[in-house]
Design goal:
The protein is mainly α and 170 residues long. Helix content is 55%, strand content 0%. α1 (2-8) runs antiparallel to α2. It is elongated, with a radius of gyration of 32 Å.
Length: 170
Protein backbone atom coordinates (compact mmCIF):
# COMPACT_ATOMS: atom_id res chain seq x y z
CA UNK A 1 0.00 0.00 0.00
CA UNK A 2 2.86 2.37 0.75
CA UNK A 3 4.24 1.79 -2.74
CA UNK A 4 0.93 2.66 -4.43
CA UNK A 5 0.29 5.59 -2.08
CA UNK A 6 3.72 7.06 -2.75
CA UNK A 7 3.78 6.62 -6.52
CA UNK A 8 0.06 6.72 -7.32
CA UNK A 9 -1.35 9.24 -4.90
CA UNK A 10 -4.53 9.34 -2.82
CA UNK A 11 -6.95 8.12 -5.52
CA UNK A 12 -4.89 5.04 -6.22
CA UNK A 13 -4.49 4.37 -2.51
CA UNK A 14 -8.25 4.68 -1.99
CA UNK A 15 -8.79 2.08 -4.70
CA UNK A 16 -6.10 -0.24 -3.29
CA UNK A 17 -7.66 -0.09 0.17
CA UNK A 18 -11.32 -0.39 -0.84
CA UNK A 19 -10.83 -2.46 -4.03
CA UNK A 20 -13.55 -0.27 -5.60
CA UNK A 21 -13.53 2.89 -7.63
CA UNK A 22 -15.78 5.30 -5.80
CA UNK A 23 -18.21 7.65 -7.51
CA UNK A 24 -19.19 5.29 -10.30
CA UNK A 25 -22.73 4.06 -10.11
CA UNK A 26 -24.96 2.42 -12.69
CA UNK A 27 -27.51 5.00 -13.84
CA UNK A 28 -29.94 2.48 -15.34
CA UNK A 29 -30.59 -1.24 -15.66
CA UNK A 30 -28.88 -1.16 -19.06
CA UNK A 31 -25.59 -0.13 -17.41
CA UNK A 32 -25.44 -3.02 -14.93
CA UNK A 33 -23.45 -5.35 -17.21
CA UNK A 34 -20.92 -2.66 -18.18
CA UNK A 35 -20.59 -1.69 -14.49
CA UNK A 36 -19.60 -5.26 -13.58
CA UNK A 37 -17.30 -5.49 -16.63
CA UNK A 38 -15.53 -2.31 -15.53
CA UNK A 39 -15.32 -3.62 -11.95
CA UNK A 40 -13.80 -6.88 -13.20
CA UNK A 41 -11.22 -4.99 -15.27
CA UNK A 42 -10.39 -2.78 -12.28
CA UNK A 43 -9.91 -5.82 -10.05
CA UNK A 44 -7.69 -7.55 -12.60
CA UNK A 45 -5.59 -4.39 -12.99
CA UNK A 46 -5.25 -4.15 -9.22
CA UNK A 47 -4.16 -7.76 -8.84
CA UNK A 48 -1.82 -7.54 -11.84
CA UNK A 49 -0.19 -4.39 -10.47
CA UNK A 50 0.23 -5.99 -7.06
CA UNK A 51 1.69 -9.16 -8.54
CA UNK A 52 4.01 -7.25 -10.88
CA UNK A 53 5.53 -5.35 -7.96
CA UNK A 54 6.10 -8.42 -5.82
CA UNK A 55 6.94 -11.44 -7.97
CA UNK A 56 10.50 -12.33 -8.81
CA UNK A 57 11.65 -12.39 -12.40
CA UNK A 58 13.96 -15.32 -13.02
CA UNK A 59 15.10 -17.64 -15.79
CA UNK A 60 11.86 -19.63 -15.55
CA UNK A 61 9.42 -16.77 -16.08
CA UNK A 62 11.37 -14.07 -17.93
CA UNK A 63 10.07 -15.15 -21.35
CA UNK A 64 6.48 -15.01 -20.10
CA UNK A 65 7.11 -11.49 -18.77
CA UNK A 66 8.44 -10.48 -22.20
CA UNK A 67 5.37 -12.01 -23.86
CA UNK A 68 3.04 -10.12 -21.55
CA UNK A 69 4.91 -6.90 -22.25
CA UNK A 70 4.69 -7.43 -26.02
CA UNK A 71 0.97 -8.20 -25.78
CA UNK A 72 0.40 -5.01 -23.77
CA UNK A 73 2.20 -3.00 -26.47
CA UNK A 74 0.00 -4.62 -29.18
CA UNK A 75 -3.17 -3.80 -27.25
CA UNK A 76 -2.01 -0.23 -26.68
CA UNK A 77 -1.28 0.26 -30.37
CA UNK A 78 -4.63 -1.17 -31.45
CA UNK A 79 -6.56 0.93 -28.92
CA UNK A 80 -4.60 4.05 -29.96
CA UNK A 81 -5.48 3.33 -33.57
CA UNK A 82 -9.17 2.91 -32.72
CA UNK A 83 -9.09 6.06 -30.60
CA UNK A 84 -7.50 8.03 -33.44
CA UNK A 85 -10.17 6.78 -35.86
CA UNK A 86 -12.93 7.77 -33.44
CA UNK A 87 -11.33 11.17 -32.86
CA UNK A 88 -11.15 11.75 -36.61
CA UNK A 89 -14.81 10.77 -36.98
CA UNK A 90 -15.82 13.05 -34.11
CA UNK A 91 -13.90 15.94 -35.66
CA UNK A 92 -15.51 15.33 -39.06
CA UNK A 93 -19.04 15.14 -37.67
CA UNK A 94 -18.41 18.12 -35.39
CA UNK A 95 -17.12 20.18 -38.33
CA UNK A 96 -20.12 19.21 -40.42
CA UNK A 97 -22.55 20.14 -37.66
CA UNK A 98 -20.86 23.54 -37.29
CA UNK A 99 -21.37 24.18 -41.01
CA UNK A 100 -25.05 23.17 -41.09
CA UNK A 101 -27.23 25.98 -39.79
CA UNK A 102 -30.42 24.76 -38.18
CA UNK A 103 -33.27 27.28 -38.16
CA UNK A 104 -36.97 27.13 -37.37
CA UNK A 105 -39.87 29.55 -37.32
CA UNK A 106 -39.18 33.11 -38.48
CA UNK A 107 -35.41 32.52 -38.55
CA UNK A 108 -35.94 29.52 -40.83
CA UNK A 109 -38.26 31.50 -43.11
CA UNK A 110 -35.63 34.26 -43.42
CA UNK A 111 -32.95 31.73 -44.38
CA UNK A 112 -35.17 30.21 -47.10
CA UNK A 113 -36.32 33.58 -48.52
CA UNK A 114 -34.97 34.15 -52.02
CA UNK A 115 -33.69 30.58 -52.47
CA UNK A 116 -34.98 28.05 -55.03
CA UNK A 117 -36.61 26.22 -52.11
CA UNK A 118 -38.86 29.14 -51.04
CA UNK A 119 -41.79 28.39 -53.42
CA UNK A 120 -42.08 24.88 -51.94
CA UNK A 121 -41.79 25.83 -48.28
CA UNK A 122 -45.46 26.20 -47.26
CA UNK A 123 -47.22 23.66 -49.46
CA UNK A 124 -49.50 20.80 -48.47
CA UNK A 125 -46.71 18.29 -49.12
CA UNK A 126 -43.17 18.36 -47.77
CA UNK A 127 -40.18 17.80 -50.03
CA UNK A 128 -37.85 14.86 -49.44
CA UNK A 129 -34.18 15.43 -48.59
CA UNK A 130 -33.00 14.49 -52.08
CA UNK A 131 -35.52 16.82 -53.69
CA UNK A 132 -34.37 19.67 -51.45
CA UNK A 133 -30.76 19.04 -52.42
CA UNK A 134 -31.62 18.97 -56.12
CA UNK A 135 -33.56 22.24 -55.85
CA UNK A 136 -30.75 23.86 -53.89
CA UNK A 137 -28.29 22.98 -56.67
CA UNK A 138 -30.55 24.43 -59.39
CA UNK A 139 -32.17 21.21 -60.60
CA UNK A 140 -35.91 20.57 -60.60
CA UNK A 141 -36.62 16.94 -59.71
CA UNK A 142 -39.33 15.23 -61.75
CA UNK A 143 -40.79 13.78 -58.54
CA UNK A 144 -42.25 17.16 -57.52
CA UNK A 145 -44.35 17.76 -60.65
CA UNK A 146 -47.79 18.99 -59.59
CA UNK A 147 -46.85 19.43 -55.93
CA UNK A 148 -48.14 23.02 -55.98
CA UNK A 149 -51.67 21.77 -56.76
CA UNK A 150 -51.89 19.43 -53.76
CA UNK A 151 -54.20 20.59 -50.98
CA UNK A 152 -55.10 19.47 -47.51
CA UNK A 153 -58.70 18.51 -46.81
CA UNK A 154 -60.72 21.16 -45.00
CA UNK A 155 -60.83 20.85 -41.21
CA UNK A 156 -63.88 19.13 -39.74
CA UNK A 157 -66.19 21.01 -37.43
CA UNK A 158 -66.31 19.70 -33.88
CA UNK A 159 -70.02 18.86 -34.08
CA UNK A 160 -69.78 17.15 -37.51
CA UNK A 161 -72.18 14.12 -37.47
CA UNK A 162 -69.66 12.06 -39.48
CA UNK A 163 -67.18 12.34 -36.61
CA UNK A 164 -69.52 11.21 -33.78
CA UNK A 165 -68.07 8.28 -31.92
CA UNK A 166 -64.50 9.18 -32.95
CA UNK A 167 -62.52 10.49 -30.06
CA UNK A 168 -59.64 12.82 -30.56
CA UNK A 169 -57.92 15.76 -28.95
CA UNK A 170 -60.26 18.38 -27.53
Amino acid sequence: MKFFAYFGGPHILDFVISKFRRGRMAQSADEVASYFDDHFKDQMRHHSASAATTFEINQHNVMEVFNVHCRLMEIEKSSDSLENKQDAMHRAVGGMLKEIVFSTGDAGAKRVKGTPIEPYENLAAELRDGELLQLATGMRPSTIEGIEKLTLPPPHKKDDPELRGISGPN
